[in-house]
Amino acid sequence: MTSTVTSPGIDKNLDTACASVTGEISRTDGKSSLLLAFNGAVLAGLASVADKDLPLFTKVFGASAVLALGAAAVLLLLVVRPRLSGADRGSFPYWARLDEDEIRACMDGDTRAARIRVLSILAVRKFTHLRRAVDLSLAALVLLVLAAAGLAL
């Protein structure tokens, strides 16, 4: 690994970027956990009426809502699923495969730029899954409103 000389401004910016991307990843995990709990509660509530004799209209929209919530739950689980590939030379999964001397050798160069790139890719992937899960959850709520309207008919 090559060592590069950086200015104090670049050092500060790299440190800030690393902290920023790490914070964004934490935000997605927190949001995903809350939304996963919400979706689980809604699915549990829907399971309690699964054996009821409901109008066909209500069953169709209710089943569609369950499918949307299930798909959202899968996306949310992908958001909070740990990434342990170790491809990023500046990450703990990579370091876990090394002995102490190899770790010291890795610390010889500045890996912050590479780490920012890898963490940014991870953050974008997590936010994309989170956004799709929110969209599916909102669609499920609309379907549930339609299913409830079918009960009023």
Explain the overall architecture.
With 153 residues, this protein is mostly helical. It has one domain. 76% of the residues lie in helices and 0% in strands. It has 5 helices and no strands. The chain has helices at residues 8-47, 56-80, 92-95, 100-106, 112-152. Helix 1 packs antiparallel against helix 2 and helix 1 packs parallel to helix 5 (112-152). The protein starts with 7 loop residues before the first helix and ends with a helix. This is DUF5706 domain-containing protein. It holds the Pfam family PycTM. Residues 16-149 form the Pycsar effector protein domain.
Average predicted local confidence, pLDDT: 89
Helices, by number, come to 5
State the order of secondary-structure elements, H for helix, E for strand: HHHHH
Radius of gyration: 23 Å
Note the main sheet. Answer: none
Beta content comes to under 5%
What's the number of structural domains? 1
Query: What characteristic shape results from the CA principal axes?
Result: elongated
Query: What is the terminal-to-terminal distance?
Result: 70 Å
Q: Low-confidence parts, pLDDT < 50 over ≥5 residues?
A: none
Alpha-beta content class = mainly alpha
Number of strands: 0
Please bin the fraction of helical residues. Answer: over 70%
